[in-house]
UniProtKB/TrEMBL annotation:
InterPro entries referenced in this protein's UniProt entry, alphabetically: EamA_dom, EmrE-like
Protein source organism: Thermotomaculum hydrothermale
Residue intervals of the EamA domain: 5-136, 151-292
Protein name per UniProt: EamA domain-containing protein
One Pfam family of this chain: EamA
UniProt keywords, alphabetically: Membrane, Transmembrane, Transmembrane helix
Transmembrane segments: 5-25, 31-52, 64-83, 95-114, 121-142, 154-173, 185-205, 249-269, 275-292
Any one of the GO CC terms: membrane
Superkingdom to which the source organism belongs: Bacteria
Amino acid sequence: MNFRIIFVLIVGIISISLSAIFIRMCSDMTSLSIAVFRLVISSLILISIAFFRKVKLDKIQKKDLVLMILGGFFLAFHLLAWITSLKYTSVANSVALVTTNPIFVGVFSVFVLKNKLEREIVIGIVLSVLGSFLISRGYVGASIETPNHILGDLLAILGAVFASGYILIGSIVRERVETFEYILVIYTITSVILLIIGLIASVTFFKGHSLFLGFSLKSYIFVFLLAVVSQLLGHTSFNYSLKFLKPDFVAIVILGEPIGASIFAYFLFRERVSLIQLTGMALIFIAVIISSRKGKRIEEIVD
């Protein structure tokens, strides 16, 4: 695999792994407000860059624009479904179920993209999902269930389905649309959708203050880092790689996030890593190694 792609994937994993740390530091923000800030800040930065670079979107085909709008809905509802699931089920259940997206990406790739699932990819999907499940089981309180835990579990699975749609659309559109134009459109669409949903739901983002005021300086700093590092750098790294790698392989690689998050949590918050979590991490690592043999889509990188 090309060194540039490997580097991009490593940067992407590190960047999204930091998202859990940044979110934890935004202690006085609601989950939905964090999601809104994350996408709004990201899209505003991209719009500013596009303005100064005089980026034009007129070359984007109508069918690709429609797909990107759909992808924006998928990303927005992935975030909403997953965030809402945390209110009804345990963190362990939610994480384990929402990270089943490699299964759905693999299935969708067969039926939508007419791709053949190679044996190595299938093994990678099984090992990565099992590894993610073991990591989630290692959290303290993993067995705790709320009265509405079934609803929470279903929402987490729905979040995985939406995430899979988002990845699959990226794989299709990135064949014709450059990285910057793609993320400019899809992040902006997602931010608008989340903002509208938040307003319609009358969510009290700021405890009686105006929409973008009322939180601590620390929260503003870390939600900005969440937007720049985890969204613009992390998500964009994977969107970039979708032009060159199969979507099911990218979905497997993304499951490196809980590994990175656990490592950062250990050093920053002294959270212990259990033997069962280490086993899960090892399975995900093996899954990436095995599936990488059949992960490429094209031979040359020209983006």
